[in-house]
Structures are given as structure tokens and as C-alpha cells.
């Protein structure tokens, strides 16, 4: 539902008018600056919803610092968010803190400042559990929902969440199209604050490293609330003086209540002194209490006092070994760890080497060199005693303290060669699965050659849907595996992991992960002295920069790739890099430069006999000629491309070219012929299962139907395109929704 004033204008149009007056510009001058026709801007002036691209260009030209983009993002109504993880089922105690913190969050903050609370304290004190319980208690007061992120400030791998990436995730969740999110921390933070300016959203920032990591994630709206947890006392953010709580150990009564929940009321009542002693030996810390209670519960025939004696012995052994962690916590970990079977203990140790935010059964099986079914049984055993937490969907996560402890045990009990071998198996598991998944997403694309694995790893048999789901869940772990590959000397895998992820990254536009993985991949290829790999990853990286509109960086990376490929004589790679430079020329509206690059690529593809590449180059060249409005010549070149693809029976290339022919005939004002080309392209792309291509064709077909005076069939096509782009998470969906709304 679009927010229009009684006079038909919109908040976006009003703000645009204000900024134009401020800068002394006319609407016609704005038309010249942003490349949109005066008639189209007239529709915007009178309340039509702006596209994301138009909003981005206006924001840039008028130096609105994200405010116009935010207004455009809000024209279809605020997005309702529900990102909070479930609160702990065994949460007990902390009544005073819960009452105090919820009391703060149910009120508005001061003007320009959200209502903010911070919870700090030692590891294992239950900061996250309290934060989630408080957040769930106040959700009804935040009508636009909740944002949540684990900032991993104390992650054992030393890689806390990058604030740029978090802002990108938050902005997309808030309805901002990915292709208009600016690069750079400051620009993203400004846009984030603008989007939240008139919303009531609760933001939970869990496990923050320090105030610097938090500052850009705090809104500037009094209607928002913020909950921060950290091991350190967070200062430097605007908040009420009584809004900081340091969480220490639980009281004795609270500790006993928690133990009773797990071990049962009868055993607690039968040995009250022993249960009290157990609580004391756990340091009254919730994490230790839960693990110890589970250990007691799994030995129902042993007295609690006997088990406490064992814990006393273990504490004496470990006393003095602890640094940041309390002796109590490490003691309980050790006590439960030594109660595991040999195979379960080994799995626990090796899982500690996995530094990602979550772990799949397949990755764990590779680490431990076990069949998947057996690995799952071992992981479930660790979950049962609270040394792991099940997340569903065959995935698990481990508390940071437990991961540190597990890694320490691995260092003590596993030879370095075995630890390295386990990590190499894990890297190989990610590598082969990411290749398999990405091939399922785009089988027509050529990937670097991947040798057969030297290990007995499990590789999934993906279809399109399962491949997309797997990549969505695992992409952050692919970045982790890329770093791990670099660390253990698997430099070829280090560049092939991001290269093998390209189809997914290109489809879903996960910019931050795309850039992060490929920047590490470039380093890996250089360490491997693999010029072929370096040029491949640079080319992919350039493509990301280009789509992020960081054209200078894109062209620089393309040119580095071009130089390497020229030096090593990689003619096929050289042709594809020229194709990228041609696309960059298109982005700059330098269509003559684009055509020149496509012509060079065409000659190279012909020189090496790559007919698929030749056809793509011809199709791109025809499109560049069309953009220069040489329509007859464009048709001739595109028909040459079409004939080539038909000759080699390349159905993907045929559909790719038919769409460009349809575009050309649309510009020639010959809608019947344009629609014929779109119909043929649509049939091919559906036959191939090319969902993105199907959506693109429906989009173009819908526009052509509007031009030919057929509004209802046009809307039907556009609705079909919206459904596909929504499914794929493509930002075009929002543009088409706005178009449909404006023509309703």
C-alpha cells in the first residue's frame, strides 16, 4: 500500500521537491542529471512509486545520504521482521534483571535516541539467554518486528562479524533492494538510520566485541529499541545511565532451581547438600550448571554426592590451568568430556576446529573421517549432554567457550598432522559440495576443473531447490573454509572455493560474502603461484565490484586479470575478461567502448574455436550496437548469433539471444515481432529450467504487451516475473511490484 497524500503526492515526491528547491534545480534539470524522461518524472511528482534505481540516482545527485532511498524502500509499507531466535526453555531466575530491562524497553527513548540496554558479564553467565528472554517479553511494543545478529565478538577464529556485512543483511531484511545498497560503512549506516527513522524495530546485537562494532548498528529513532550483549562493558553509545547491567553468577536458589529442572525434584530433595555443592562447584554460571545437570541426569543410579566428589577431583586437576575462563566452567567441561565414549570425545575435539557459526553433519563427518550416519549419532550424543546445540535441518552450533575448550583438547590429544588432515578433509568436503550445488544452479556455466577428492567425503546429489537452500545456509561457512584452506596450505582449494561459488553469488547477490571470499581467494592463488587461478578469481571479483557500482575497482580488477591472462596466453579467459570490460563500458554508457571489447572477445573466441563464447560475444555486440541505435545492424549481428546457437544446438545461448532480439524489435516499434521473439525465448528457458531467464523474459514480454495496448496480458506476465524474482531473491521483484501498482 503506497503512502499518498490527499493531493496525490507521496513522501518521496515531497522530499524530492524540497531538495530540488534547496539546490535551485528544476525537475527538467533533474531529468537531465539522472537520465529519466521529464514525463516519467512527472508521474513520480504526482505520486507514482519510484523504482529503486531512480531513487538511487536522485539520492546520489541530490546528496541525500540515503534518505531518498529509504523513502523509496518504505513506499510499499514496512517489512515485518521476526529474526529473534527462540528463548531458552530452561531459563530460570534473573527476575530482578528481567523486570528492570523490560521496563526500560517498553518506553520510547529520547528524541533521536533509541531505548538501549546493554548486558555484560563473564562468559557462561547467560547474557544471551537473558537478552532473548527480555526481547521476547517486549515484542508487542515493537510493531515493525525484530532484527537479530550474533556479532561473534569473541569468536575463537578471531573473525568477528564485519559491520558492513551486517548492515547489508539488515537493510535487505528491511526491504531495501540489494542493488541500491551503497558500498562503504558510513554510507550504509546512514541509509540504515534513514530506513528505521519512522519504524518501531527492536535490534538485538549479541556478543559484541566493543562499542566500535556496535555504533553503526544503533538506529537514531526514539521508537526503536536496542539490546547489546558483550563480555566487556560497552561505553560510547548514547543511553540512559541505568541501562547497563553486569551479569554475574546466579544466586544459590536460582542455581538449585535450574538443577532441579534437569535432574528432577526427587533427587534434588533427596540430597539437598550435594545439589547445593554441585551449584557451588559450577560457580553458579548457567552454562556450567546446565552441562553438569545433564551429566547427573545421565547417571540416575549414582548418588549426586558421588558425582560431586568426581567433580572435586577434576577441579583440583585443572586448578591453575584457566586464564579468562573460570575454573568452574572448565572443570565442568572436562568432567562431561571425560564421560564421553572415545569416538564421541574425538568428534567433540575435532568439531572445535570448525570455526564457522554453525556445523552441518556432512562437515563433521569429513572432520572426523566418519560415515555421515555415524557422525550424526555422535553429534546427537554431544547434543544430549549440552556440549552441542541442535539447530534442526541436520545442523549444530557450539558455544564459544566450548569451542575453545574442544580446540584445546584437540591440541593436547591430536597430533598436529592429524588436526591438519581433518581440516583438509573439511575443506575438501566444502569444495566438492559447493561445486556440485553451483553446477545444479547453472549447468551451462564453465567452472575450473576439479580433481576427484582424495578423501571419503559425502557429496550431495543436488537439484536446483536443494542446491539453492544449501548455498543459502552454508555460504558463510564457505568463506570460513576459504580462510581455513589458506591457513593449512591448501592454496588451490582456497581459490577454487570462491570460484566454485560464483553461480550462487551471482544469483543471490550476496555482495559482502562474494567480495570477502574472492579477496582471500586471490591471496590463495598468489601463494599457490597459480596465475590461471588468480586471473579467474580477479575476474569474478571484478564482476562483483561492477554490480556494486564500484566501477573504478571493477575495471582495475578486470585489467589485472587481463594482464595475467595475456601473459599466460589464456585466450578463453582473456575473451571473458574482455566481455567483462565490455559490460563495464555499457554501465558507463560508453557503448562504442563496449562494442570494441566485444569485438575483440569475438575474435578470440573464434580463434580458439569456442563457439559458445563466440555466440555470447555476438549477442553482446548486437546489444551494444542496439544501444547506439543502429537497429538494422544490430538485428543482423543478433541473427548471426542466433543462427550460430541453433547450429551448435546451444539452447541457453539461443534463449539469451532471442531476448536481445525482442528488445531490439521493441525499440523499432514492431511489437508483434518483439513478442514473437519473447515467446520463443520463454519456451526455451522453461524447457531448460532457467528460472532467472524465465523471469527476465516475462518481464520484457510484459513491457512489450503494454506498448502494444494489451494491459491485462502485460500484468499477467509481470506478475509471473515477480513470482520468479521473489523466489530467487532478485531485486527486480520490487521494481516490478512498483510498476504493477502504478498501472493498476
Automatic annotation (TrEMBL):
Pfam families: NB-ARC, TPR_12
Residue ranges annotated for the HTH cro/C1-type domain, each copy included: 15-69
Family annotation (InterPro entries): AAA+_ATPase, Cro/C1-type_HTH, Lambda_DNA-bd_dom_sf, NB-ARC, P-loop_NTPase, TPR-like_helical_dom_sf, TPR_rpt
SUPFAM superfamilies (alphabetical): lambda repressor-like DNA-binding domains, P-loop containing nucleoside triphosphate hydrolases, TPR-like
Residues of the signal peptide: none
Gene3D superfamilies according to UniProt: P-loop containing nucleotide triphosphate hydrolases (3.40.50.300), Tetratricopeptide repeat domain (1.25.40.10)
Top-level taxon of the source organism: Bacteria
Segments annotated as TPR repeats: 535-568, 655-688
Key words of the record: TPR repeat
SMART domains xrefs: AAA (SM00382), HTH_XRE (SM00530), TPR (SM00028)
Name the UniProt record assigns to this protein: Tetratricopeptide repeat protein
Organism: Actinophytocola glycyrrhizae
Amino acid at each position: 500500500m503506497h503512502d499518498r497524500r490527499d493531493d496525490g503526492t507521496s513522501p518521496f515526491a515531497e522530499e524530492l521537491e524540497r531538495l530540488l528547491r534547496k539546490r535551485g534545480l528544476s525537475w527538467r534539470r533533474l531529468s537531465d542529471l539522472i537520465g529519466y524522461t521529464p514525463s516519467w518524472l512527472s508521474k513520480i511528482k504526482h505520486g507514482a512509486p519510484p523504482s529503486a534505481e531512480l531513487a538511487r540516482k536522485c539520492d546520489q545527485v541530490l546528496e541525500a545520504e540515503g534518505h531518498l532511498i529509504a523513502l523509496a524502500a518504505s513506499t510499499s509499507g514496512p517489512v515485518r521482521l521476526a529474526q529473534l531466535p527462540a528463548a531458552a526453555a530452561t531459563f530460570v531466575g534473573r527476575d530482578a534483571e528481567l523486570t528492570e530491562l523490560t521496563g526500560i524497553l517498553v518506553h520510547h527513548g529520547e528524541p533521536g535516541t533509541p531505548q538501549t540496554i546493554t548486558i555484560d558479564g563473564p562468559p557462561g553467565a547467560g547474557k544471551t539467554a537473558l537478552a532473548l528472554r527480555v526481547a521476547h517479553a517486549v515484542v508487542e511494543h515493537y510493531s515493525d518486528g525484530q532484527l537479530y545478529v550474533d556479532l561473534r565478538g569473541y569468536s575463537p577464529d578471531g573473525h568477528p562479524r564485519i559491520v558492513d556485512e551486517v548492515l547489508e543483511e539488515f537493510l535487505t531484511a528491511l526491504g531495501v533492494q540489494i542493488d541500491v545498497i551503497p558500498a562503504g560503512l558510513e554510507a550504509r549506516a546512514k541509509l540504515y538510520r534513514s530506513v528505521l527513522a519512522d519504524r518501531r524495530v527492536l535490534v538485538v546485537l549479541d556478543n559484541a566485541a566493543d562499542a566500535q562494532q556496535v555504533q553503526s548498528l544503533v538506529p537514531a529513532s526514539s521508537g526503536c529499541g536496542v539490546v547489546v550483549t558483550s563480555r566487556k562493558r560497552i561505553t560510547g553509545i548514547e543511553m540512559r545511565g541505568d541501562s547497563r547491567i553486569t551479569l554475574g553468577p546466579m544466586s544459590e536458589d536460582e542455581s538449585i532451581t535450574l538443577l532441579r529442572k534437569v535432574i528432577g525434584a526427587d533427587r534434588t530433595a533427596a540430597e539437598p547438600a550435594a545439589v547445593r555443592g554441585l551449584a557451588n562447584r559450577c560457580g553458579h554460571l548457567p552454562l556450567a550448571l546446565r552441562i553438569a545437570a545433564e551429566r547427573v541426569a545421565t547417571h540416575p543410579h549414582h548418588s549426586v554426592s558421588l558425582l560431586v566428589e568426581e567433580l572435586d577431583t577434576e577441579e583440583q586437576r585443572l586448578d591453575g590451568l584457566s586464564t579468562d575462563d573460570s575454573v568452574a566452567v572448565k572443570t565442568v567441561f572436562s568432567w562431561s568430556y571425560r564421560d564421553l565414549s572415545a569416538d564421541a570425545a574425538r568428534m567433540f575435539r575435532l568439531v572445535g576446529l570448525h570455526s564457522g557459526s554453525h556445523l552441518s553433519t556432512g562437515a563433521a563427518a569429513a572432520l572426523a573421517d566418519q560415515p555421515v550416519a555415524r557422525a550424526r549419532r555422535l553429534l546427537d550424543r554431544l547434543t544430549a549432554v549440552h556440549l552441542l546445540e541442535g539447530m534442526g535441518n541436520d545442523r549444530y552450533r557450539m558455544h564459544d567457550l566450548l569451542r575453545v575448550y574442544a580446540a584445546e583438547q584437540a591440541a593436547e590429544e591430536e597430533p598436529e598432522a592429524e588436526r591438519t588432515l581433518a581440516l583438509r578433509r573439511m575443506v575438501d568436503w566444502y569444495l566438492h559440495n559447493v561445486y556440485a550445488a553451483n553446477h545444479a544452479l547453472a549447468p551451462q556455466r564453465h567452472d575450473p576443473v576439479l580433481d576427484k577428492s582424495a578423501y571419503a567425503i559425502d557429496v550431495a546429489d543436488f537439484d536446483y531447490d536443494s542446491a539453492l537452500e544449501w548455498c543459502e545456509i552454508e555460504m558463510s561457512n564457505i568463506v570460513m573454509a576459504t580462510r581455513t584452506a589458506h591457513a593449512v596450505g591448501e592454496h588451490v582449494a582456497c581459490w577454487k572455493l570462491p570460484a566454485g561459488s560464483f553461480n550462487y553469488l551471482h544469483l543471490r547477490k550476496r555482495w559482502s560474502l562474494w567480495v570477502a571470499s574472492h579477496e582471500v581467494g586471490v591471496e590463495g592463488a598468489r601463494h599457490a603461484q597459480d596465475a590461471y587461478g588468480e586471473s579467474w578469481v580477479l575476474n569474478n571479483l571484478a564482476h562483483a565490484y561492477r554490480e556494486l557500482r564500484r566501477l573504478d575497482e571493477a575495471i582495475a580488477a578486470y585489467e589485472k586479470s587481463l594482464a595475467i591472462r595475456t601473459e599466460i596466453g589464456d585466450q578463453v579467459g582473456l575473451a571473458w575478461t574482455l566481455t567483462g570490460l565490455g559490460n563495464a563500458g555499457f554501465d558507463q554508457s560508453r557503448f562504442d567502448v563496449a562494442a570494441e571489447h566485444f569485438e575483440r572477445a569475438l575474435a578470440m573466441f573464434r580463434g580458439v574455436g569456442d563457439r559458445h563464447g563466440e555466440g555470447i560475444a555476438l549477442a553482446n555486440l548486437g546489444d551494444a550496437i542496439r544501444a547506439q541505435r543502429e537497429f538494422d545492424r544490430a538485428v543482423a549481428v543478433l541473427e548471426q548469433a542466433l543462427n550460430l546457437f541453433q547450429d551448435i544446438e546451444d539452447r541457453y545461448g539461443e534463449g539469451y539471444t532471442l531476448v536481445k532480439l525482442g528488445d531490439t524489435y521493441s525499440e523499432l516499434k514492431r511489437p508483434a515481432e518483439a513478442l514473437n521473439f519473447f515467446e520463443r525465448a520463454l519456451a526455451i528457458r522453461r524447457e531448460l529450467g532457467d528460472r532467472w531467464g524465465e523471469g527476465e523474459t516475462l518481464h520484457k514480454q510484459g513491457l512489450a504487451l503494454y506498448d502494444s495496448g494489451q494491459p491485462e496480458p502485460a500484468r499477467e506476465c509481470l506478475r509471473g516475473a515477480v513470482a520468479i524474482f521473489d523466489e530467487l531473491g532478485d531485486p527486480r521483484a520490487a521494481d516490478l511490484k512498483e510498476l504493477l501498482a502504478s498501472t493498476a
